Amino acid sequence: MLNLIINLNHHCRRGLILLFAALTLVTAACTEGEPPVVAEAAIVEPVVTEPSVAAPEPVVESVQNEELESAPVMVHGFELSDLEGTMRSSDEWNGKPLLVNFWATWCVPCRKEMPALMELHEKYADQGFEVIGIAADELEKINVFLEKTPVSYPLLYGEMTSVFELSDSYGNTIGVLPHSAFVDRDGVVRHTKVGEITIEEAEELILDIL
Question: Helix, strand, or coil here: 155?
């Protein structure tokens, strides 16, 4: 038993000596000569993200009407088809005060303002006032829309590009819908309105062209 303890002690002492020697070598490697090689981490540039900006939507919200105070803008003549396929000329409405409203079935504010336009069309009809709706749309879509929302004033329609070009002659210089032009009896565009118009706004401008 005594020999076993002596041998164990001998091995323990030997292990301690070897451990001490190893620690000495490690210490020497960290403090002497060139510093230990450390693998460099890949440098990642911080990603700076711009605040997300939604794509601009077409202007359809109501804005203040514009009174055309510069040289009078005379309405250009046009010929467009009505919903029955009959070609209608702008000459038909010569001498009448008009609200020419450019719209489309896919335009929510256009649809929202229609009841007000119908009410005013009927209210001032005995004074020669007319509302003319000109749609930048397809006949099939217009007819589907009218099944749920009948409209009492004349509706014309045409291919989108040509209707927007026509609306430009009625003061729609930024090419948005809805667009309303108030035309006096001499065929002069007196007021324009971009976006949904309220019945109060429309009536005030109608009274100015009667």
Answer: strand
